[in-house]
Write a structure and sequence with these properties.
Blueprint lengths: L2 E5 L3 E6 L4 E11 L8 E3 L12 E5 L6 E2 L6 E2 L3 E3 L5 E9 L4 E9 L5 E10 L5 E9 L14 E6 L2 E6 L7 E3 L3 E7 L3 E7 L6 E7 L2 E9 L3 E13 L2 H7 L13 H4 L1
Parallel strand pairs: 1-8
Antiparallel strand pairs: 1-2, 2-3, 3-4, 5-6, 5-12, 7-9, 9-10, 10-11, 11-20, 12-19, 13-14, 13-16, 15-18, 16-17, 17-20, 18-19
Length: 262
């Protein structure tokens, strides 16, 4: 499938048109180990069957899930390079039957965060939610000098940080409330999806076959709909997360004194 390479001052990302998925997201300022010649830090860990982030699902109570897993999208360009305050977008489009899906990703040269808008047209009325999924395998024992990128699922409900170790997700978890963001967290890195409109999404988490699935589910109406979110993939640096907003800095454990730093 066609691949799209996006390079900024901070990362090199690769998308595949097979499902319009994020295949790789390497941080240019971080290495896998303390060895300066080790590979750039990779933050995408595919599922056991090769599942990748940014799948889209349409869900309803009495119908099968409509997924874009087998969809082959058309990309608007093949590569994008951005520096400083430059910005640019890549569109992926798939014409299914009856639904047409488009994923637009907008990047900035000097920001870890980027924006995504998922638009669905001709949605049958029996579907009530559109989901953005992030799937990852449980990580194997890291090589000497390295560590697991993510070791828990995390989300923000109002002002409350909620975290789950992966072994607690075997029976599935559904989290509702005022969801500010949801994603995966590790000692040094964070990947988070942050809804940008007050659509009252819910978060669905499940561990199966050594793979963790996370879905951020947005309510929709029939016809045409859009799910909008910002995405952060990068270091758990308090000041950087504060700049992003969305109360993303709550992902940094500061104990009882977190409010002093805000």
């Amino acid at each position: 499938a066609q691949r799209v390479r996006v390079e900024t001052d901070l990362y090199v990302a690769t998308f595949t048109a097979a499902g319009a998925r994020l295949e790789s997201f390497q941080l240019k300022n971080y290495r896998t180990t303390v060895d300066p010649d080790s590979p750039l830090q990779e933050t995408v860990i595919p599922g056991q069957q090769g599942e990748l982030p940014f799948g889209v699902e349409l869900r309803g109570r009495s119908v099968e899930v409509l997924s874009d897993t087998a969809a082959v999208y058309t990309a608007s360009l093949g590569s994008l390079t951005l520096n400083g305050n430059e910005s640019g977008s890549v569109d992926f489009t798939w014409h299914g039957e009856p639904v047409t899906l488009q994923k637009r990703f907008t990047f900035h040269g000097d920001h870890y965060e980027f924006a995504t808008v998922v638009t669905a047209q001709n949605v049958p009325p029996e579907y009530g939610e559109i989901g953005i999924t992030w799937t990852k395998a449980l990580e194997l024992t890291p090589p000497p000098g390295a560590e697991s990128v993510y070791d828990k699922a995390a989300l923000l409900d109002g002002r409350k940080l909620v975290e789950f170790t992966f072994d607690k997700l075997a029976t599935g978890v559904v989290q509702t409330g005022n969801i500010g963001w949801a994603g995966f967290s590790g000692r040094h890195f964070l990947a988070a999806i942050m809804p940008t409109e007050p659509q009252n999404p819910r978060v669905w988490l499940k561990l199966r076959d050594h793979t963790v699935e996370e879905k951020v589910l947005f309510p929709i109406s029939a016809g045409a709909t859009a799910a909008k979110a910002d995405v952060y993939i990068g270091p758990k640096d308090f000041d950087a997360l504060e700049t992003v907003g969305h109360d993303l800095s709550r992902a940094v454990a500061l104990g009882w004194f977190w409010f002093i730093a805000l």
